[in-house]
Write a structure and sequence with these properties.
The protein has nine helices and no strands. By secondary structure, the chain is mainly α. It has one domain. The longest helix has 50 residues, at 167-216. The protein is elongated and about 80 Å long. The chain starts with a helix and ends in a 5-residue tail after the last helix.
Amino acid sequence: MGKSGRAYASGKMGSRRILIVKDIGLIVGVSFGITAGIAWLFYDSPVGMLSGILVIPMVVILVQKEKQKKRHMKIQQEFKEYMYSVGNSMQTGYAPERAFLNAQIELKKLYGESSIVVNLLEGMEKRLNVKEPLENILRDFAADSNCEDIESFVEVFCYAKRSGGDFLHIIQTTINRICDKAEISKEIQMVMAEKALEEKVMCVIPMGILLFFRVTSPEFISVLYGNVLGVCVMTVALILYGAAFFLAQKIVEIEV
């Protein structure tokens, strides 16, 4: 990576730090709410707040995982549009370098400054102006995107550019496959949206039942609080509930 590439990567790392700082409030709030709920519902004691030792890392994992999922879906959608534009520019006779720059301009018009792909490609024109190879820029882009589709495309692109042959046909075929995969992934997400909602409802029901008994008939479950056996039973129930929650999360995840 050249000097401009290193400066570009440094800028993106700074952005990621800002995003992490913004997430701290969400993580603290959610972790405190869950920990307080566990302390009251499962143990009826402030000592139950010690469960935060396990809750906080789990919340961090879930928040980061959800962020990565949304980012990945947005990158896929933007990259699909980007590739359409690149393909159209190349078919009209533009060189690859100009085609990628034109597509970046079109994508910025479509998604604005918040476009992830546009931000990842920021600095492309400057790097091309100092005669840095397009392949190096795209490799940096693929590495920073952390997206398998982009990495596959860049690998094929670099091979086609080195080997020659029917360059336009190879690129167009790769673009079509990536776009088809993005469409299939979008359709699967739409189909699974209902199942994901059912999964969330099923995860809330056990806590809802326990809350119902605590509010309406506290004497019915009072035997589970204030004694060693009750603590053990509630701890086992909490562990099973947590395991079921993460298993349910895994079941509704489908990757193309």
